[in-house]
Description:
- By secondary structure, the chain is of the alpha/beta class.
- It is 33% helix and 24% strand.
Amino acid sequence: MVKAVVAGAAGRMGGRIVHSIQGSEEFKLWGAFEKQGHQAIGQDVGDVVGLGKLGIILKGSIGEVMEGADVLIDFTSPESTLANIRFVAGTAQAMVIGTTGITGEDEKELINLAQGIRCVKSPNMSVGINVLFKVIEHVSRTLGSDYDMEVVEAHHRLKKDAPSGTAMNLARILADTTGRNLETDAVYGRRGFIGVRSAEEIGIQSIRGGDIIGEHTVLFAGPGERIEITHRAHSRDNFARGALLAASWVVGQPNGLYDMQDVLGLREKTDV
């Protein structure tokens, strides 16, 4: 039985993870917490997420819930995730991170801390999207620079970071497989008299609206044809299922930073 703690348990994603844990025979909900000042602190987390009483009180800090746990599952915010991994780095516990928007010096610190524990960090925990990463790698390498490449992502109106972490990972795959530099060749949106599209640029476009869970399309446009490969998330439950798959896998691994390609065994594969 894997004893899991959920960070941000009262949030949209945290709530779905709690539901998934309760529906799993492999996991036990060991604890749940929210950021200080959250109105749901002190309530039964089951009541908060619509499951009825579970006997687990939503706490206001990580220090109140981690003793005896095996793994922390964190889909919160860059600031909260960084604080949480600093805590976990001082324990022998594991961590699964689905938080996006962590950049710069914060990202460097997080990666350094994650390498000293057992940690899975992925911009998208969906099994389908991680298969897509592998497919895009193969297609991009095959088509090469003869095809223009664009990434289009769409999310709900409440998402705070743009482009999404998944879109950036897709763009990074395109850059790596075609020998481009994402720092200099990425183009984020277009407006005005921009001139002819360069052969090197990788376009990354973001759409925000309504309650879109998450959609990602990679477009390869060549002479006389185009290929569009799309992944659409219909529910947050697929992210939650992926997070539990990652948590189950990482607790048995040696210290190190992993991602869903490792969890799914896709890292070693060369063909799709």
